[in-house]
Design goal:
alpha+beta, eight-stranded antiparallel barrel, 23% helix
Length: 213
């Protein structure tokens, strides 16, 4: 006769509650936490804090690698998030970039008897409008108008429509000159990190003011 195994709950060993982990608890271990996002964000901001908006990074390849690595880590935490909605609308002030044209203007503004002030991206998702702006205090400004078409979850397509070089008492219109796209790979209440069609990177913060033409 075959032996019959009986389970006795009263005498069988129990799994200690301190060692038991529910499936929900286990899965949460692998999810990015706010604290990790805050740490990576802080690391990135520390790395770019002394880079003069990217001018110093141009001659420091190792620093560039560190910064882009931090950007990629932050992008991974933001993967799958929608960054093309209303929260994208803002006056964004540049903290750091690899865009050579902008850095050239910032570096050489002194040749024209001025200096570059805030560099901005002014985005209005509802109106499908983007202005790229470089200010030259106290009254000078160069800005490029664009139309935009958001492509969720993170891409925005843009097309330049016109450009203007303006001072307090004169204005020079310039022709539009291109189109492309950028992806906001990370976005929160304070900063935005973007990559574009040319492989350039941009880190911006929400400016404490709204820029208008």
């Amino acid at each position: 006769m075959a032996a019959t195994l009986r389970y006795n709950a009263a005498t069988s060993p129990r799994i200690p509650s301190s060692r038991y982990r529910s499936p929900t608890c286990i899965l949460s271990f692998f999810r990015p936490t706010k604290s990790k996002s805050a740490r990576v964000k802080s690391d990135l901001l520390n790395l770019i804090s002394d880079q003069d908006r990217g001018l110093k990074t141009q001659s420091d390849p190792s620093k560039r690698v560190e910064i882009i690595s931090a950007i990629d880590e932050l992008a991974l935490l933001g993967e799958g998030s929608v960054t093309t909605g209303k929260s994208l609308s803002s006056t964004w002030r540049m903290l750091w970039t690899t865009e050579k044209e902008q850095l050239f203007i910032i570096k050489n503004a002194g040749l024209f008897g001025t200096k570059a002030g805030d560099v901005l991206q002014v985005i209005d998702v509802e109106e499908k409008r983007l202005n790229n702006v470089i200010t030259f205090p106290p009254t000078g400004v160069f800005f490029v108008r664009s139309t935009i078409e958001p492509e969720p979850p993170q891409r925005v397509n843009f097309k330049f429509t016109s450009a203007v070089l303006r001072s307090s008492d004169w204005e020079i219109p310039l022709p539009p000159f291109g189109q492309g796209w950028f992806e906001s790979v990370y976005l929160d209440d304070d900063i935005r990190v973007a990559k574009d069609i040319r492989g350039d990177y941009l880190v911006v913060e929400r400016a404490p003011y709204s820029w208008t033409e």
